[in-house]
Amino acid sequence: MISMPFQGHITPFVRLALNLASKGIVVTFVHLESIHQKLSKAHNHNHLDLFSDARQSGLGIRYATITDGFPLDYDRDLHPEKYWTSLLQVFPPYVDEFVGNIIRSDPLSQHFLVTDTVYGWPAAVATKYNLLNVAFWTSPALVFSLLYHLDLLKERGHFLCQDHVEEEINYVPGVKSVSTKDLMPYLKESGTGTLVHKIEMKAFEEVKKADFILHNSVYELESQTLSALNKLQPNYAVGPISFSKNFASLTVTTSLWSQSDCSEWLSSKPPGSVLYVSFGSFLQASQQVIQEIAYGLLLSQVNFIWVVREDAASPADPLPSEFRDEIKDKGLIIPWCDQIMVLSSPAVGGFLTHCGWNSVLESIWCGIPMICYPLDYDQLTNRKLVVDDWEIGVNLREGESAVDRKQVAEKIDKFMNGGAVSERHRQEVKKVSAILQNALESDGSSEANFDRFINDLKAKLAANSEETPLSLIV
């Protein structure tokens, strides 16, 4: 398995590897050397092997690293355009060589490839080595479907539509309706020249060549979308993969940064009184927005934990200079944490989030309603699901209005201490949480879909060759 080198992709990929290994498949899990170095540094381990505990438990998982073509000391975060352009052009030959070596070292096994859908090279590598090609999509099926049907969007004038146009899209198979304002920014006119636009366009040309597509979603939440996609290619909703009960107790290092322990601070707060605030691993909001949110938190008087990674922000500390002194014991500012641990605390009553898909799933799983402030990528579309479709969250702002500290304070206060509307969101998120948890029970939809995928995979392999041990390159 070769994941994209982002936290939100690595976490579900690791859990998918454990699930596949639990079915008797030998997995070769591959990290970029730079990601391995970051993990080792974060966890003070010079010879980190992610899956040593898994092997001791009897799972067949091998851990390997591969170069991305850059020196380890190259600052990839400082030069994202150059780095990602290289990943599109220079990285594929390294993958080709790596896969070829794996196959030559074990010529008697049947091999197949599992990669992140966002990569644009898997189909070419799979074709060269006659491998089955499995794509893993780590965002909701709604986002996948919109990208999959770019031809329809283009035909109707909604691909590269003008930024401020608001029209309903109700012709994509399996998608009841979505407004153009909720489209991913790279599908709009202003996003045409962005790197993410180029990456996604290439990826969704190639994913149509995949043999199987796995989704980190739940069938019951996106049934119409997934059913429509399944008529075009074999699609399987197997999420939320990070909560799979297969070898759930195993310790596998996935966090790219060292984690702060918030348990003592949380235990000192009343039940449901803490607002957890995190905008993910890349803080992309402007300093003005961050400062308005900061003062809004102060005005609201709620208890809060705020994850602010200074190495991901510009300037290094985007918070107001006096803010840290003024919060006293009402707030805790940390660089990173175990998000599931925090959301699982009885003290936490809400999550102010950028709507990254992992964060959405984790919040739902823990039964925590959300205040949504999407920033980029798939987050605007994820917000639509959270607020409009499932009604388990609210918007921090409405429309294109600027973020204002007084409105932020009022929104937070009403959300954390409100009446009937606030209670309705809490009841709805409990219902959706139950859907996620039921999907991962032994008779649940995600467990059934994963077994169906394994059976379909083996059948397709058997159709091409005699039955031999399975070996997976992930």
TrEMBL record:
Q: Which UniProt keyword terms apply here?
A: Glycosyltransferase, Transferase
Per the record's keyword annotation, is Glycosyltransferase included, yes or no?
A: yes
The molecular function GO annotations come to:
quercetin 3-O-glucosyltransferase activity; quercetin 7-O-glucosyltransferase activity
Under SUPFAM superfamilies, the record lists:
UDP-Glycosyltransferase/glycogen phosphorylase
Query: Which EC number(s) does the record attach to this protein?
Result: 2.4.1.-
What CDD domains does the entry give?
A: GT1_Gtf-like
* InterPro entries per record: UDP_glucos_trans, UDP_glycos_trans_CS
Q: Where is the signal peptide?
A: none
| Family of this protein | Belongs to the UDP-glycosyltransferase family.
Q: What is this protein called?
A: Glycosyltransferase
Query: Which organism encodes this protein?
Result: Perilla frutescens var. hirtella
